[in-house]
Design a protein that fits this description.
It is built from ten helices and no strands. With 191 residues, it is mostly helical.
């Protein structure tokens, strides 16, 4: 767990620790990084680390949560900017958002912790759960399956796009994938 107080000192310490971890992860496998190496790279004391984090992976969890909190804000702004009333699009704004904020996804891939991405998506979608049943025209009983499918598809697309160097522009990729998925659905070939 992370325990970041809402003061500038704690926030700055957490940022320094994250920067130190990101640097070390560029040099060696995540599982071989020790707290001693981390505090040295971050230039903070061991007590500062343990005041803010229980485990090294909590640093990644904090940054993941921060980035996904920003995603929620971005999705809301996107919806308002484009005056979208119902069935808001997901893939296009998501790819736009992560085009310049993919570092945490890359680090989580490197650490083999994409489960944090999945958990973050579930947390992000939780407040919209009730509306999702109406948007998607799905019985409440099957809503969790629908959300799990969408999260799985979006996570896989996002990871593949990042792994391949984000070669396609976000809007183009979202449009092409939307067309492909639509064709598969019409032909009943998605599953």
């Amino acid at each position: 767990m992370y325990h970041i107080k809402d003061d500038q000192r704690s926030i700055r310490s957490a940022e320094m620790i994250y920067a130190g971890l990101a640097k070390l992860m560029g040099e060696k496998p995540f599982d071989s990084i020790s707290v001693t190496e981390l505090v040295e790279a971050a230039q903070v004391g061991r007590a500062t680390f343990y005041r803010n984090f229980d485990h090294i992976e909590d640093i990644l969890r904090l940054r993941c949560d921060q980035v996904f909190d920003g995603l929620v804000t971005y999705l809301i702004e996107y919806r308002l900017t484009f005056d979208i009333e119902s069935r808001p699009p997901l893939l296009k704004p998501l790819l736009r958002y992560f085009e310049h904020r993919s570092e945490i996804i890359e680090l989580l891939m490197h650490a083999n912790r994409l489960d944090m991405v999945t958990a973050a998506f579930h947390r992000v979608f939780a407040p919209f759960r009730a509306r999702s049943a109406a948007w998607l025209d799905i019985d409440e009983e099957y809503l969790d399956y629908s959300l799990t499918i969408r999260i799985g598809v979006v996570t896989t697309i996002l990871v593949h796009w990042i792994e391949t160097g984000k070669k396609q522009p976000p809007d183009e990729l979202a449009d092409k994938l939307g067309d492909m998925i639509g064709k598969m659905m019409r032909r009943n070939q998605l599953l």
